[in-house]
Design a protein that fits this description.
The chain has 19 helices and 16 strands. The protein is an alpha/beta fold and 468 residues long.
Length: 468
């Protein structure tokens, strides 16, 4: 038997029924291992000892019933698919169980073919959830390595989007304000893709004069123009087998837009001055902080090029949409700035982190990083407090009152909790108000697992029933 195959656990207080159902289902679901136990207590012991993908349990059992087993099983394995077997008179209870997190329910007598199909779908769901978890973990690790930090719902969506687009070779348009980390997102996509071992080339389109941009991208042959003394490979050819990032794509001239469109359509480049085209194997990522739709309307950007670029989209949120990430970002930037300057380690007080989180950052993450660098240099003490934050930028009033920096240090988690808890409470309360207390719908809208949202509600003492 394949020990790595996903496992299905059948729970029923009638041993003969449990054994019989296991034997009946085994040939119908050859990709899984089937086990059975005869009580809710035994099921919990089994789940605590070994991983399981799908749990099939009777609803009515002595001791721990199926309805009681459900939340305890999900607490042990949040991705577990739970299928309830119930008599006709228990339909209302089964529906309530679905709302509590069950995957499906069937009425007795059980049709084995139907049950096998339900379990097979549950196994597919479990595999998908495992793969999503693996990708999220890979994105987290990759994001940390390239500086793509954040734990907010907005950044969770970014990381999920990066995980989704990384597996294909489609063109990606990365959109966001200046300083939001668009190139970091591009590096994360590249690092997670099958092209990770290939080149990663980024070109800042506005930084290259219009008359040279075409040659820089596509290359040129000797004699193509004055000063072209030898053939030169362009960036597209140099990135063969890898990725090229066209940064600020909205600023390229119309003449280059036309030739870029041909590259996207034909997957070949023609160097300046050449009559021959060369095939390329390059994934194209483009980024912009501009409103391309408005540029299409005023005829400064080709609509057909826009649709070629906008196959997949990743949007980088501005810092004002992820304020709860500011303590984490500031702390990481401070550690990096101390290493860069050779200054001894410094730390923020909780009040200073709250002050940073309360400020506007029109330059987004880039502005925050530069501000932290400034604090690193000009703050003489080992602890950066709210007065240092106010002094470093006197044009903004400090939203947090504070005393002298000395003696105000706090552990990072404590500082983060002070800043984030208020936001989390407001966010969750608005979410429950919008969904009228429906926790499942709130979890779907927020991008959180239902179990995770329930933990947040319990921690903050928020009752969903009060919003119904």
């Amino acid at each position: 038997m394949n020990e790595t195959a996903p496992r299905v656990l059948i729970v029923d207080d009638q041993p003969d029924f449990a054994r019989g159902l296991t034997r009946l289902l085994a040939p119908k679901i050859p990709e899984a291992r089937l086990d059975h136990v005869c009580s809710g207590e035994a099921a919990l012991e089994d789940l605590a000892a070994r991983p399981c993908a799908v749990l099939v349990t009777d609803l009515r059992m002595p001791g721990i019933s199926g309805l009681e087993l459900l939340p305890r099983a999900l607490a042990l394995e949040p991705r577990l698919g739970v299928v309830l077997l119930t008599a006709h008179g228990d339909i209302d209870t089964a529906v309530a169980a679905l709302k509590a997190g069950a995957y499906d329910f069937l009425t007795k007598p059980v049709d084995s073919e139907h049950l096998a199909r339900v379990i097979a779908k549950g196994l597919e769901r479990a595999e998908l959830l495992r793969e999503n978890q693996r990708l999220r973990a890979a994105v987290e690790a990759c994001g940390a390595s390239v500086g793509l930090l954040g734990e907010s719902p907005a950044m969770a969506q970014v990381k999920e989007a990066i995980a989704a687009v990384a597996g294909s070779d489609y063109t990606v348009l990365i959109r966001g304000e200046s300083g939001t980390g668009k190139e970091l997102a591009a590096r994360a996509i590249h690092s997670l893709s099958r092209r990770a071992a290939g080149p990663f080339l980024s070109v800042n389109c506005p930084a290259i004069p219009d008359q040279l941009l075409e040659s820089e991208l596509f290359g040129h042959v000797r004699g193509a123009f004055t000063g072209a003394e030898r053939d030169r490979r362009g960036l597209f050819q140099s990135a063969n087998g890898g990725v090229i990032v066209l940064d600020e794509i909205g600023d390229i001239p119309m003449s280059v837009q036309t030739k870029l469109l041909r590259v996207l359509q034909e997957r070949e480049v023609r160097p300046v001055g050449s009559s021959k085209s060369t095939p390329i194997d390059v994934r194209i990522l483009a980024s912009t902080n501009q409103d391309l739709e408005a540029k299409i309307a005023d005829k400064s950007f080709r609509e057909d090029l826009y649709y070629r670029l906008n196959v997949l989209t990743v949007r980088m949120p501005p810092l004002r949409e992820r304020r709860e990430d500011i303590p984490l970002l500031a702390t990481a930037f401070l550690s990096r700035a101390c290493r860069e300057t050779g200054i001894g380690e410094k730390e923020f007080s909780a009040e200073a982190l709250a002050a940073l989180a309360g400020r506007d950052w029109p330059g987004n993450v880039r502005e925050l990083f530069n501000f932290v660098r400034r604090l690193t240099v000009f703050c003489r003490g080992d602890v950066i407090g709210p007065k240092a934050v106010a002094t470093a930028d006197p044009d903004q009033s400090d939203p947090i009152d504070g005393d002298d920096e000395a003696g105000m240090a706090a552990p990072y988690l404590e500082a983060k909790a002070r800043v984030v808890d208020a936001f989390t409470r407001r966010y969750v309360e608005r979410l429950l108000g919008q969904t009228r207390g429906n926790v499942s719908e709130a979890a779907r809208l927020s991008g959180l697992e239902r179990v995770s949202l329930q933990k947040i509600l319990r921690r903050l003492g928020i009752a969903a029933e009060g919003y119904r």
